[in-house]
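User: Teach me something about this protein's shape.
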Amino acid sequence: MDAIVKNFPVLDDTSGRPTQKEAEEAVRVLLRWAGEDPTREGLKDTPARVVKSYREIFGGYDLIAEDVLGRTFEEVSGYDDIVLEKDIPFYSHCEHHMVPIIGKAHVAYLPNGRVLGLSKIARVVDIYARRLQTQESMTAQIARAIDETLAPRGVAVMIEAEHLCMAMRGVKKQGSTTLTTTLTGAFKTDPAEQARFMTMLRGFK
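Assistant: First, the predicted structure itself:
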């Protein structure tokens, strides 16, 4: 099933984003709603801490994946086989309940004359993880960014993650894992390439 890919705007201070003071006041409102006293000693600095942490946790809105992927390398000595970066850890947040998604991403592509620096792949995973997300959308966004920027012969992205919205609330099923994939190019059209991708995932330690 193809996921719906959402385009996220890059926000700046003129886009209607609330001020630091407004964001901190929103945290105080939530503390009062939860039954707490925001003025007590242990919570006095909590709004500022929460806003500071949110700026880091949701920092992906201020970054553009295509900019990170802009530099590629053509000196590959004729290499044209699968490049796989496995077990890239990430932390994201569910857009429905704003609780953590904890998982790892596996990203592969088939070069078409150019390759990416390995750190670029991990950074792209981080950019999309540091936004409010669904796992399906995040999987497709990573694949699309690499596919459109690098123009390889194919991209394969697999994400496996635990959603704390299922573990902490609702059905409360701790330890369940969700698996999603997006395939493009040869990985989508050639069953042999799909099989090689899955074999490398299982065998690469």
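Now, about its shape. The CA atoms of residues 10 and 22 lie 20 Å apart. The chain has two domains: 1-62, 73-202. If you'd like, I can walk through any region in more detail.
User: That's plenty for now, thanks!
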